[in-house]
Amino acid sequence: MILAPRLALCLLVAGLCLFQAQGMTSSWDCCLSTKDTPLSLYRLPIFKGYEIQNFDKGCSIKAFVLITRRDRKLCYPLDSKVARDFKKALDEKKARNGIKVLRKRRPSS
């Protein structure tokens, strides 16, 4: 009967370690620096969206993050011309296309 409390303790410790590890990975996706290199809007089709990186996500800098269709991330300063232009263009593109809702297929009888 001593085995049951030990097993419970081991499971608790393993769960806490897993919880700790998951919390730490969020900062790995942060931009560590930004570059203000020019980027033309004709490249808009290769981007699927953007994120605004803030301190509340565990990141050390604020940034405008462009996300490509291949899930690559480009980091720009929040106040850059690229950030303003692409934010406006991607918001307009999203408004034009609307939100696409996938309908569930009915099972054929």
Task: Kindly describe this structure.
With 109 residues, this protein is α+β, with helices and mostly antiparallel strands. The protein has two helices and three strands. The protein has helices spanning 3-25, 81-97; strands at residues 47-53, 63-68, 73-76. It has a three-stranded antiparallel sheet with strand order 1-2-3, covered by helices on one side. The longest helix is centred in the first third of the chain and has 23 residues, at 3-25. Pfam families: IL8. GO terms for molecular function: chemokine activity. Residues 29-86 form the Chemokine interleukin-8-like domain.
Task: Summarize it.
This protein is of the alpha+beta class and 109 residues long. It has two helices and three strands.
The coarse overall form would be elongated
The spatial strand order of the largest sheet comes to: 1-2-3
The SSE order reads: HEEEH
Share in helix: 25-40%
* Record field, number of beta strands: 3
Question: Which class best fits the helix and strand makeup?
Answer: alpha+beta
Helix tally equals 2
How far is it from the N-terminal to the C-terminal residue, by CA?
53 Å
Radius of gyration: 22 Å
Approximately how much beta-strand content do the residues carry? 15-25%
Q: Strand count, sense and closure of the main sheet?
A: 3 strands, antiparallel
Please state the average pLDDT score.
Answer: 81
Low-confidence stretches: 21-27
